[in-house]
Amino acid sequence: xxxxxxxxxxxAILAAVPRLxxxxxxxxxxxxxxxxxxxxxxxPVPPFANTAMDGYALRAADTxxxxxxxxxxxRVVDDLPAGRAPEIAVGPxxxxxxxxxxxxxxxxxxxxxxxxTARDGDDGVLVQAEAKAGDHIRxxxxxxxxxxxxxxxxxxxxxxxxxxxxxxxxxxxAVYRRARVGVLSTGDELVERGPLAPGQxxxxxxxxxxxLAAAAGVEVVDLGLARDDEALIVGVLEDAFARCDAxxxxxxxxxxxxxxxxxxxxxxxxxxxxxxxxxxxxxLAFGVVQGVPxxxxxxxxxxxxxxxxxxxxxxxxxxMGYADGRRPEVVARAAHAFTRRPDxxxxxxxxxxxxxxxxxxxxxxxxxxxxxxxATAAANGLALVPDGDxxxxxxxxxxxxLT
Length: 403
Ligand code: AMP
Ligand code: MG
Description:
With 403 residues, the chain is α/β, with parallel strands linked by helices. It has four domains: 3-20 and 178-319, Molybdenum Cofactor Biosythetic Enzyme, Chain A; 23-41 and 153-176, Molybdopterin biosynthesis moea protein, domain 2; 50-138, Molybdopterin biosynthesis moea protein, domain 3 (Molybdopterin biosynthesis moeA protein, domain 3); 329-401, MoeA, C-terminal, domain IV (Beta-clip), CATH 2.40.340. Helices cover 19% and strands 31% of the residues. It contains seven helices and 26 strands. The strands form seven sheets. Strands 7-4-6-5-9-8 form a six-stranded mixed beta sheet, with no helix packed on it. A six-stranded mixed beta sheet has the order 16-13-17-21-20-18, with helices on both faces. The chain has a five-stranded mixed barrel with strand order 22-24-23-25-26. Helix 1 (6-16) packs across helix 6 (301-319), helix 3 (205-215) packs parallel to helix 6 (301-319) and helix 4 crosses helix 5. The two termini are 34 Å apart. The model has no long low-confidence stretch (mean pLDDT 96). Bound molecules: adenosine monophosphate and magnesium ion. The site of magnesium ion has 5 residues, from loops.
């Protein structure tokens, strides 16, 4: 079977996955989701003119020539905390003590910060600096005007977006629904907990894939651990297709005798078997069954993670409305030689990327075999070492950032 380039494989998957429906969601639950509508401010932010400082609201004309040596004395006629509407206006020769966020009282056209004043008796303040009209006043709509488009459809909601949405009174927003993603491990050798019998290993892919999926902002459905039994796997998948938007399986998709995931998925049809021009994670089973994308990830834990990162994660994000669900990439300098031979594949080496003052540097995190997950845990990037004879220390190297 011919090897298919990484980009071509990813593009084909992105073109095949459906987009999830739009739902109205409370803003607090919308982080990591994508807006399906433009958000227009229905009210200005801030809603009224207010002070940016603790100090005194006054008339700038009353402070002409004021200095520390020759302060202007004004009569303090009120005390205005944030949250209270002003009841009286500031007349000539008067000031109102005012706290940050309190509305500007009528008559006043400037704020002098408290640090430039001194109290003078019960009802006086000495203003020790000249004020200009408008000083320290936040005008209504200074952040957002009513009628202004705050965010456009396609925006990924982050914590600051939640704050802005709250500031304009948008309590619910139309977003693409969070994907429900089923995760299944397969293999007779796998155990979840307890002592290991001869030949057994612990299931590490399912906890890892569940964690990866959760970190990508999807809702995880743990489908458990299935024996290498075709009928059993078919049953678990049928149930999964009924209640999940996408399914990740691991194991059972290579060329082995007991690779029943491949057999089970073949029964549902519409599945493609690809040999991708990458190492690790060459075999990939992908298809859309009953409208549900299925990713048959390889069993070796490192391959499983790499395949998830390259294909499943961007696809899940695309389903959730992301215009580009890929990880960001940087070009780093190779900290050392990356040795390899030509084999028609891009090698995805697990690396640690650090900023070294004038650029990024990428160093291998250790052994690169596809079963050595510990070196992957130490990595914050996947280096794309192109086909060929490898790279020398100092050569530029593309790295997909995993954080
Ligand atoms: P398979 O693709 O099922 O032939 O599995 C390839 C290798 O990955 C074998 O060494 C399996 O024991 C191992 N493997 C498969 N699934 C898991 C899993 N969930 N956790 C850890 N190792 C696994
Ligand atoms: Mg297996």
